[in-house]
UniProtKB/TrEMBL annotation:
The keyword Cytoplasm applies. It comes from the Bacteria. It comes from Candidatus Faecalibacterium faecipullorum. This is UPF0291 protein H9771_04485. GO terms for cellular component: cytoplasm. The lineage of its organism: Bacteria, Bacillati, Bacillota, Clostridia, Eubacteriales. Its main location: cytoplasm. Keywords: Cytoplasm. InterPro entries: DUF896.
Amino acid sequence: MTQEKIDRINALARKSKTPAGLTEAEQAERQALRQEYIAEMRASLAAQLDNTVIQEPDGTRHRLTRRKN
């Protein structure tokens, strides 16, 4: 996510706290930007966990596996 998009999310958050609030279009834009941000954060966390290795006390190492749930 670009810094401009993050700045726009923050600007919309600040504007929503003012008495004027957000228009319908701005609310939709804020929701879309939030969803994009959350999707990118989840992807980043998943990538980090995919590269995580557990080292057992006996020195063996293994990667994390996903739960079947």
